[in-house]
Design goal:
single chain, alpha+beta, two-stranded antiparallel sheet, 7 strands, 20% helix
Amino acid sequence: MNNYQLPMNNQQLRSGRLLLIVVVLFFSSCSHKQQHAQSSAPSDFSSKLEAHRAGVDSVMRFAPDSPFNRDTSVAYHGLNYFPPNPEFRFECILHRYPIPTPTAVMGTKGEIRSEVKYGYFEFTYQGERYRLNVYKMSDEELRRHGDELKDYLMVWFTDSTTGKETYPVGRYVDVDRESSDPNHLYTLDFNYAYNPYCAYSANYSCAVPTRDNTLPFPVYAGEKKYHN
């Protein structure tokens, strides 16, 4: 889980972030079926998702870099999720922009970050076509967080559940490392959508999804909000 938030800059934090990435990507694999289509869920879809959620729960409870262990004023009582829903699982090609665009992204504490708008995914949901921009870390952010994250693709989004059932800032989906194959199919699975650390503790600042990554329908999948 590429929790792209900034409480401080040190090796422990980078290690914790990489641990969460490993938890997500181990349980959410990519497949090679049909392009730009909603994918049929594999037979072990629910069991993989439940195993993933158990792994995240373990990290939140026990990892030294968990936001709940870094900020002991916030009690951990388990994360809240929508039930597994294969309707929100899609397979997409990465459409790379000819020239990746440096983009200013706001942080939740008001700071401006320079990110790279790298490309976009397209998918069809209930007969309509949608697009989400895909981001990568800028050189500036990589210097702050470490080169280990340079190949990871990030999707930050809001939808009709934002501020209601889900965290008011928005949610994140970690897709995979970038493949050199232009026809590689990435699995964009909103069942793995999660809250950034600022959803739990005010000690963190997180990237705010841009307006062009707003989905005009409710994504009833992934993590719900933590605080009422």
